[in-house]
Amino acid sequence: MPAAEDTPKPSRIQRRNRKRILDAALEVFSQYGFRGATLDQIASEAGLSKPNILYYFSGKEEIHVTLLNALMDTWLDPLREIDPEGDPLEELLQYVHRKLDMSREFPRESRLFANEIIHGAPRMGPDLETVLKPLLEHSAAMIDGWVAEGRLAPVDPRHLIFSIWATTQHYADFDAQLQVLMEGKDVHDGASAYLDTLYRRLLTP
Predict the structure, then answer these.
(1) Right CATH number for 64-203 from 1.10.357.10, 1.10.150.20, 2.60.40.10, 2.40.30.10?
(2) Where's the HTH tetR-type domain (predicted)?
(3) Residue pLDDT, tens place only, 63-111
(4) Neighbours of 129 (CB within 10 A)
(5) For the chain, what are the domain ranges?
(6) Backbone φ and ψ of 155, nearest 5°
């Protein structure tokens, strides 16, 4: 039986155009959500025609799922990188600071994720069950172990992780509100010091 031909690798122009489309879609989806976004908006943002968009992707949903799949790995990497052999307090504070950094570096990605979850995770539901949940359980068990060893103050590990997500991603998801309340000042430096103090006091045995 003859071997199947290898799938040809995309050309440099094809890779560039896919990146343009995905970056444009990220901008549109982060502003309008999946329901409010249209292929026409994505095409306009990318500077490409709608038929050109459909050459690379079957439709709006495929673009959205492609972005979400890439985002999931980026979003979970800092949690995966917590070292069970490290100093518990410093490992968790580093996680807090990395998540805050991500809210500055990837605000559109944060809003894309938030919009998906707010609408019931119709496209990410399976990943939440098969990827996020096992990682959360592993991380919670690690934190429980640190608490049992007396290396952290008693804390519910799941609610700790939820609170870290809430207090860091707030700076991306509610940026428009913060710009008004903080009169356009960069709030991240102050947030970093505040969250460090907050979690250090909470977690120090």
Answers:
(1) 1.10.357.10
(2) 15-75
(3) 999 999 888 888 899 999 999 999 999 999 999 999 999 999 999 999 9
(4) 11
(5) 8-57, 64-203
(6) -155, 145
